[in-house]
Amino acid sequence: MIDNFSILLSHALLLVMMWRLLSRDDVDAERPARDLREEASRESGANGHEADRQGDWKAPRVRTDGGFGRDA
Amino acid sequence: MGASGAMRDLFFIAFLGLCFLLAFRRPFIFTLVYVYIDVVAPQRLSYFLLNSIPVSAIAFALMILGLALDPAKRDIRPTWRQGAIALLLAWCAYMTTQAVEPLWAADKWVWVWKALLFALVLPFYLHKRLRIEAIILTYVLCASAIIVTGGLKTIASGGGGYGQLVLLVNQDTGLYESSIISLVAIGIIPLILWLANHGTIFKPDWRVKLYAAALIFSCLLIPIGTEARTGLVCIAVLAVLMLRFSKRRFLYLGIAATVGLLTVPFLPQSFTKRMETITNPGADESAATRLAVWQWTWEFVLENPQGGGFDSYRINKIRYNLENSDGSTVEGRSQVVDEARAFHSSYFEMLGEHGFFGLFLWLFIFVGTVFRLEIMQRRYRTRAPPGDEWIAPLALALQNFIIIFLVGSLFVGIAFQPVPFALCAVAIAFDSYVARRRREAEFRPLVGGSIGRQPAGNV
């Protein structure tokens, strides 16, 4: 039963991941780096920006689209 | 084969079928499927159906097809360390023809060339930030299939002793081997933390963090359940690495020590007994064997600088002294004569099998990657441009994984294990990607837009 639970959980998450990748155009194409940096500068100037630390559970204000494409 | 076995077989076939269907819409997913087959090895978990299908070969062929169909092939950039991997692959191929034990060498070569070839080509697929995240997430989720079952069984029964914990299948190879899964489980903790804080596929929310916390707890249980001393060493290394940028070091140390002390009464007695041998190697036969084999390997390679090919340890004959279990020397020592004892160290494995040149290449690949990641995390830690805050934490997480691998593999022969090689390849791709994006961001045409040309890679 433990084995089946572990297999089901991990495989379900893998499938969800692959499904989500289908709707993410930035898997194959990213916007130009210069444009993204300028856009991020404008946004961080408007919203404020928090420095990040490894293992810090309080997530920094990361763009939900990863900063490189539109969110699904 | 019972009903449950048939159900499991059908489940894996359905899962793989679905993945391949999704991959035809998004060819990069072929790479993720190959990683899944390589790590989880569903053909080993299958009772009948998958065993008769060469799924690994099919997935590899489709992965190559995926590269041919890749719409962003022009962003591919080869690197020096990939050149080193190619050279190591060629050297290993040559040494297999010169091996002192040709049949055993050919046996090991069958899976080593696949691991090296995959590490060589993987960076060609990872030229987008999302792809790098996806491959790391795939490795974490695939390992979690084994880690979660190991963690739960450890809670339920304490593990049962070294080599007794059955992780999905009763096999002693790949991630299903105790020392390897212990090392990988601890090594991926920094990557789990990075995904929980910077992931874009599963965005950081309370569910993601809860799952990450539970998975990290399972990872920490694996060394207890498997009773692999390598795991305890890796935990100690991880604890030191996590201190590096911690702002409240003393608080962190205090909490870690308290939790450690409170945990000890709940640990299985067999586990604590086995861990005590770390401090008393003379009384433990496996530790004495290691030292004797290492000495033999050094003498062997002095006479054969190019090494002896894969599994050259099989020709060793060693003699060593074993102290009595109470540590006393008054009663004298018992002498043990043994032969064909494994290297028990990735460094001596490389040295004994592929000589000084092989060891140099291996170190160049891994230590060179640690060095490059250090440069990256220093550059981006305090001066990250807006939108690049994810870079330094990922550089640190990958660096921590490789350091844990380099330290953990001091005492276990896992030099060619696919997962560390692949994650090193991910780090190489990450380095190349960040450098390319930085050049693109900093590019300024000399005159307006009419003469200056954009660097390749922009869409």
Structure description:
The complex is a heterodimer of chains A (72) and B (459). Chain A is elongated, with a radius of gyration of 17 Å. Chain A contains two helices and no strands. Chain A is 50% helix and 0% strand. Chain B has a two-stranded antiparallel ribbon with strand order 1-2. In chain B, helix 16 packs antiparallel against helix 17. At the A-B interface, helix 1 and helix 2 of A face helix 1, helix 2, helix 7, helix 9 and helix 16 of B.
Major beta sheet summary of chain A: none
Arithmetic mean of pLDDT of chain B: 85
> What low-confidence regions of chain A span 5 or more consecutive residues with pLDDT below 50?
49-72
Radius of gyration of chain A: 17 Å
Beta strands of chain B, count: 2
Approximately how much helix is present in the residues of chain A? Answer: 40-55%
Distance between the termini of chain A: 36 Å
Strand fraction band of chain A? under 5%
Shape of chain B: globular
Radius of gyration of chain B: 23 Å
Count of runs of 4 or more consecutive helical residues of chain B: 17
Structural class by sheet pairing and helices of chain B: mainly alpha
**Roughly how many Å apart are the termini of chain B?**
53 Å
Q: Greatest contact pair?
A: A-B, 54 and 72 residues
| Secondary structure: number of strands of chain A | 0
Overall pLDDT metric of chain A? 70
Strand order of the largest sheet of chain B: 1-2
What structural category do the secondary elements of chain A indicate? Answer: mainly alpha
